[in-house]
Amino acid sequence: MKLYSSTTSPFVRKVQVVAEEAGIADRITLVPVLTMPTKPSDELIAKNPLVKMPALELDDGSVLYDSRVICEYLDTLHERRPLIPASGAPRWTALREQALADGILDAGILVRYETVLRPAAARSQDWIEAQCLKVTQGLEALVSQPPRLGDHPTIGVISTVCALGWLEFRNPLASRPSGPIDMRKQFPEAFAWYEEARRRPSFEKTEPRG
Predict the structure, then answer these.
(1) Predicted TM-score (pTM) of this structure
(2) Burial track 11-28 (b if 16+ CB lie within 10 A, e otherwise)
(3) Which helix (H) or strand (E) holds 29?
């Protein structure tokens, strides 16, 4: 299998962590892709019509996207304990945690696009503020209901670690028009959880860089 990827993408990282935890990382070849929203990669266009990473090309040539679909597929390829619980409250809790983490990332990435890619004169301060609010609201929700840690991470734990890792890596809240936010000071409980959770080898091996 081939994973079209970037070392800075938190969604690619989520897939990599799932592969590591499932014990199948050696079955996946990473294919680095350079792409930007304003300058899409032809290689990525050929694999994913939405021009987003990650995209997973299977051995038969078919391609899966996005990260949630890829993670669910990879979770069917191993005999270990599932990373996505099969049913009941554990399943819906893990999927809700994944949705919260992915939503935080979506908003944070939009802030980065607006502040890094868009010319300063064309930026919407109201838009940036609104996306920053989604990030802070998401972090408050995380503090109130943090994913449960244990010896076996669920997709909720994995997604949350990837989200917090990216927030620290890119720090989108530093661009909040009404004033920058020091995330570790404002959300100490979230980052205390993160420091404990990130110690797993699968997280250490996939730290964002670039």
Answers:
(1) 0.96
(2) bbbbbbbbbbbbebbeeb
(3) strand 29-32
Strand partners of residue 2: 29, 57
Residue identified by tokens 């050929």 is 46
User: Mind listing the pLDDT tens digit for each residue in 1-28?
Assistant: 999 999 999 999 999 999 999 999 999 9
Same-domain pairing of 177 and 93: yes
User: Mind listing the pLDDT tens digit for each residue in 34-91?
Assistant: 988 888 899 999 999 999 999 999 999 999 999 999 999 999 999 999 999 999 999 9
Is residue 209 in some structural domain?
Answer: no
Determine the Cα–Cα distance for residues 168 and 172; give it in Å rounded to an integer. Answer: 9
Same domain? 22 vs 56: yes
Which residues pair with residue 63 across a beta bridge? 57
End position of a domain, from candidates 53, 76, 99: 76
- Containing structural domain, residue 18: 2-76
Cα 79–Cα 80–Cα 82 angle in degrees, nearest 5: 105
Strands across the sheet with 2-5, in order?
29-32, 2-5, 55-57, 63-64
CATH number (domain holding residue 59)? 3.40.30.10
Q: Give yes or no: residues 190 and 125 share one domain.
A: yes
Q: How many C-beta atoms lie closer than 10 Å to residue 125's C-beta?
A: 12
